[in-house]
Amino acid sequence: MKLGYWDIRGRVEPTRLMLAYKEVDYEYVRYKFNVSDPAERQWSKAVIPNLTTKEKETVWVRIIAVVFERPRPYSEILNLALTPKKFGNHWSKEKEKFGVAFPNLPYLIDGDVKLTESWAVMRYLARKFDLAPTSDCEERDIDMVAGVLQDLIVAIGTLAYAIGKRRRGKREGTRRSPDEPPTLIVITTLSPPSISNFKLLDKFLAGRDFAAGTRLTYVDFVAYEAMDWHRTLYPSIFTDLNNLQYYIKRFEALPTVAAHLSSDKYKRFPIFGPVATWGGKDHDDRTW
Ligand SMILES: N[C@@H](CCC(=O)N[C@@H](CS)C(=O)NCC(=O)O)C(=O)O
């Protein structure tokens, strides 16, 4: 069995956790981002392309507010690197002739089966390794949880890739020299739906060992991953959410999961690709 993805946690990590939990042997094909490309380095030093001078002066980035932790100005929070989103050549070439309907990363090749789409890959493996729901009731529950988790993942991904959300607005940045890109302001906050979703999830898990009840299913692996990203970015996020805290502990205590998390196969970082403003490095680059 072969699993292919970038050398980051991203959308593949729940699948890797599932396979580790089931102690399945597989080949992990790690694609490298093309970060050493000189053109890319040049861009990271240059001004933001395709904008007029006036626009460059007024670029800012804003993630709608909240207020889980007090919003702080960009300068206190993140070191933005203006790097373009560009795939490693290696994957780009393979992608052209990959031979599935929706070529993408992650992918799974299992004998004659070749598939992409992270949720489809997880569900395929869940059916194969007894991590799928076994009743209508379980299925309804975990389908709902999967939907909520998808929202949480998209929300934190949006935050982490804040650089991609350039908006024009009033001037909030300064430049130390005319050659430097305008400083962008990022208000890092978690969106209100994320907070309320975690509260609802906490309530939902009351009296349950795992999302489906007593049985572990594939959504628990996604839930763990989503929660771990959030608590890494916001260490106090689950302080008042005891069911989530116990759930995380229960999950981490599963012997094969615990063994994996402490093995050299597990890397906490990078979580996101190198263009991310947080989580894209091989260490935690949160600066607050
Ligand atoms: N809906 C897809 C999205 C996959 C996706 O966006 N993959 C990103 C990394 S998270 C990628 O770089 N894909 C490579 C490509 O587009 O060729 C999934 O859930 O698998």
Give me some keywords for this one.
288 residues, alpha+beta, Glutathione S-transferase Yfyf (Class Pi), Chain A, domain 2, 4-stranded mixed beta sheet, two-stranded antiparallel sheet, 6 strands, globular, binds glutathione
Q: Could you say what the CATH architecture is?
A: Up-down Bundle
Cα distance spanning the termini: 41 Å
Q: How many domains is the backbone divided into?
A: 1
**SSE arrangement, N to C:** EHEHHEHHEEHHEHHHH
Q: Could you walk me through the main structural features you see in this protein, from its secondary elements to its overall organization?
A:
With 288 residues, this protein is α+β, with helices and mostly antiparallel strands. It has a single domain (2-76, 87-261), classed as Up-down Bundle (Glutathione S-transferase Yfyf (Class Pi), Chain A, domain 2), CATH 1.20.1050. It has eleven helices and six strands. The protein has helices at residues 13-21, 38-45, 53-58, 74-77, 89-96, 118-128, 136-160, 192-204, 218-233, 242-252, 255-261; strands at 2-6, 27-31, 59-61, 107-110, 113-116, 166-168. The strands form two sheets. Strands 2-1-4-5 form a four-stranded mixed sheet, covered by helices on one side. α1 (13-21) packs across α11 (255-261) and α7 (136-160) runs parallel beside α9 (218-233). The protein is globular and about 45 Å long. Residues 37-86, 163-176 and 180-189 have low confidence and may be disordered. Residues 10-11, 87, 95, 104-106, 117-118 line the site of glutathione (GSH).
